[in-house]
Amino acid sequence: MTAFHFGDRQRRLFGFYEPAREDFTKVQAALLCHPMGNEQVFAYRTMRQLATRLVRAGFHVLRFDYFGTGDSYGDTGEGSFEGWCGDIETAIEELKDISGATKVDMIGLRLGANLSAQVAQQNPDEIDRLILWEPLAAGALARAARECSTDQVNVGPEMLRSDIAEYLARSSISGKAALLPPRTLLLLTEQPPSPVEFGSLAAEYIADTPAWIEERLTTGSIPAEALQRIVGWLQ
């Protein structure tokens, strides 16, 4: 595993790259797009375990911190939806350059799923397969933003800046589902009490512990069945 910074001088990003354990005829590369804030902290072990499993399955894997988060450059308040989408595009090019892949697979969790969907819609020639793992629903975001009287919106266990929540609500996955890659998996680990608003995308439900919710003092649980399904779907 190699830890390094990449991107241009004004927007340096921090990432971990792991090459495939075995040589396969086809070069496969997977980009992991994290959630944000506390959800990223709680899901850290899960995303690392997912990377390990993908590497063993023959994938070159890159996981990284968005600008203004983690060990990447920038302050927390400098983050934006458009900027983070640009960070994913930078990570795609970096992963292709390191691995030699012509396209990449993307797995996005929570807010990372919404960002991944937006990037996939705008860069169809760069993405082979896409997994949207528990993305934030536009309807819930819109309602939360309308009812919020501060600059922070409560989205489940996480808080989002109201401007980002509003942008997410406008850039809904459901409204542009037809523009996503033909091979797209929408994965939910808990079946919601009401229909999920993701347009023509059919959700696959796997009963498992959410990786992004704190269960112990500092970490969330690893949803083994969900990880097995993700790796199996990509093979």
Describe the structure in your own words.
The chain is α/β, with parallel strands linked by helices and 235 residues long. The chain has one domain: 3-Layer(aba) Sandwich (Rossmann fold). It has 7 helices and 10 strands. It has helices at 37-42, 44-56, 81-99, 111-122, 138-147, 162-170, 224-234; strands at residues 2-6, 13-18, 28-33, 59-65, 104-109, 127-133, 152-155, 158-161, 184-188, 203-205. It has an 8-stranded mixed beta sheet with strand order 1-2-4-3-5-6-9-10, sandwiched between helices. The chain starts with a strand and ends with a helix. The mean pLDDT is 84.
Q: Any low-confidence stretches, pLDDT <50, length ≥5?
A: none
Q: Kindly state the number of beta strands.
A: 10
Largest sheet: 8 strands, mixed
Fraction in beta strands: 15-25%
Shape: globular
Strand adjacency order, main sheet: 1-2-4-3-5-6-9-10
Q: Overall pLDDT, averaged?
A: 84
CATH architecture level-2 label? 3-Layer(aba) Sandwich
Count of the separate structural domains = 1
How far is the first residue's CA from the last residue's CA? 22 Å
Could you give me the name of the CATH homologous superfamily? Answer: Alpha/Beta hydrolase fold, catalytic domain
Task: Look at the helices and sheets and give the structural class.
Answer: alpha/beta
Question: In sequence order, what are the helices and strands, one letter per element?
Answer: EEEHHEHEHEHEEHEEH
What is the CA-atom radius of gyration, in angstroms?
17 Å
CATH class: Alpha Beta
Quaternary state of this entry equals single chain
Our count of helices gives 7
Helix content: 25-40%
- By CATH, the topology is Rossmann fold
